[in-house]
Predict the structure of phosphoribosylglycinamide formyltransferase 1.
Amino acid sequence: MDKQESSILFLGKEDDWHVNKALEFCQLNFTDVVASVGKWGDPLPESIHSWQGDYIISYLSRWIVPKHLLERACVAAINFHPAPPEYPGIGCNNFALYEEAKEYGVTCHHMAPSVDTGKIIAVKRFPLLASDTVSTLLSRTYDYQQILFYEILNHIFKGEKIPTSEEQWTRKPFSRKEFNKLSKIELDMPKEEISKRVRATNFGIWKPTLEIQGFTFELKN
């Protein structure tokens, strides 16, 4: 089948299998794809600021896309957020685990200058299990997000209107400050509270910490 005549700016996370699959789909099915991937702390490449085209697609991107660039997308600028509308912002899966949510999900939404505030396009939900950790929840989240990506991009490929959803963001986005606070353990916390924070923030090299008289102690598994 011929490629769809659309220009896409694809923004994603560096060295990520799901991002690579999403980018490959765009390159195989659309005529003009400009891609930039990066990690936390990388500046948005200067060359990207002059881009103009049909769609911006942000997929696990580490960048906040500035307003002037969003306005250069003639059709739509959309983001795939690895959380449901109840969890905008940063550390979404961590807060869901901490709150012992029974359900989680992924969201596709139009991008706005303020992070995770744009009109929602579609949501896909799935159970959050009592056995879930940060690692298992993230793994399943990225799988569901990939499915949602294919569904939305298929609409674009076929020249159809982007879907709309009646769902709304339910709170302001979680901040880095709130996330950092979640990973702190205090001596006077009850055991149940400590267990919840350990479950919610223990992931790879990232560990919950305890500070005592200027010394920081890190969880050891």
Notes: The two ends are 52 Å apart (CA to CA). The chain has two domains: 4-157, 183-218.
